[in-house]
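Hello again,

I reread your note about wanting to compare the complex against the isolated chains. To keep things tidy I'm splitting this into two emails, and this first one only covers the full assembly. Below are the input lines as submitted, including protein chains and any nucleic acid or small-molecule components. They are followed by the predicted structure of everything together. The single-chain runs will come separately.
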Amino acid sequence: MTKGNVAITVERCKGCAFCVEFCPTKVLALSPAFNSKGYHPPHVVAPEKCNGCDLCGMFCPDFAIHGWREKKA
Amino acid sequence: MSELVSLHENPTEQFLRTDRMPHIWCPGCGIGTTVNCFTRALLDSNANLDKVSVVSGIGCSGRVAGYLNLDSFHTTHGRAIPFATGLKLARPDLDVVVYSGDGDLFAIGGNHFIHAARRNVDIKVICVNNLVYAMTGGQTAPTTPGDALTSTSPYGTFEPSFNLPQLAEAAGAVYVARWTTYHVRQLAKSMFEMFNKKGFAFIEVLSPCPTLYQRRNKMGDGMETLRQYKELSKRKDGASTSEVGLTRDGEIVVGKFVDRDRPDYATLMKAHYQHTMGDKYVETGAIICQ
Ligand SMILES: Cc1ncc(C[n+]2csc(CCOP(=O)(O)OP(=O)(O)O)c2C)c(N)n1
Ligand code: SF4
Ligand code: SF4
Ligand code: SF4
Ligand SMILES: [Mg+2]
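Full-complex prediction:
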């Protein structure tokens, strides 16, 4: 069984929302909170839907998010 | 706000000079996206990272060399290709990648581009094409499509623009592809293919400059541009490069257009000198500075 994980470095984010838009399973949304530069970083709204595909990580121009799969034997 | 703690590292992280983060690129700029594709292609290629070197010219795109934790060189404006040519000839053991902008590679550096392609120098050229000189304020570039507004053409451009894949093919490149920053997986795969290609290989990546191109042309932000790329792109592998020219709002033909083989510059040089000089010709091998 494979499960997906996603990690966000909120302080690097510039709020472009590419990750939110292009996540194929709609795991993310922009948070109403601000980071210290005043951007709205993404937060995870549907963790169970993450398949670890890392499309968020490939799109993110600020290297602020990535996804990965945990392989279970 | 606290940062999420993760035991798993972003695949791009190991390639970054993290002391220089955050980078200067604007929100929604596409250059960072191309870097993600590049780092994943490097990981897939199992390349010896001590033997990969990245050369950039000047511009927003040219800053890639300064952010990558590889042997990288940020050369003067337009001169990434001559620098890379010298590097590859002196150190044939290195994989030499030129990573720069449309203005750097095709305006001030255009002459170097066509001659390196003609000679089939074994270097890999990635052009981040945002259709303007972004770093200096959004001036018209040789790639700016007709009618687009720029800081130097407030009534729109009227000059015909370069069709980069056609230029690369005509000059002699052995590998030519075009993608946009919407096509992240395809771009990473293309970069991977390019590493395995001997000779002058070229990838054009269309990339948003929301700050200076899209905004002035009322085309929205980075996200709006990615949606446009998605809508307007049509994949046509093997398309005739004479038919892939870009317009301001028209179809964007993407894909791999050229994949062919011919002897590269170093191979030709060696064969020629062996033929003309016989035993007198001695290869020096890599030139290592002490
Ligand atoms: C010899 C010289 N001429 C002009 C400049 C000013 N200059 C800096 S970057 C640039 C254009 C960059 O355009 P491009 O390569 O498309 O990069 P972008 O910023 O769009 O990514 C120019 C003209 C310079 N630095 N050096
Ligand atoms: S893609 Fe990156 S910079 Fe853009 S909103 Fe997501 S985490 Fe932030
Ligand atoms: S790893 Fe894939 S599924 Fe998970 S959040 Fe990122 S894009 Fe969505
Ligand atoms: S000016 Fe344009 S190309 Fe330069 S960092 Fe900003 S968005 Fe990117
Ligand atoms: Mg440019």
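For quick reference: Chain A touches chain B at residues 5, 7-12, 14-18, 21-22, 33-36, 39, 41, 54-55, 57-63, 65-66, 68 (CB under 8 Å).

B.
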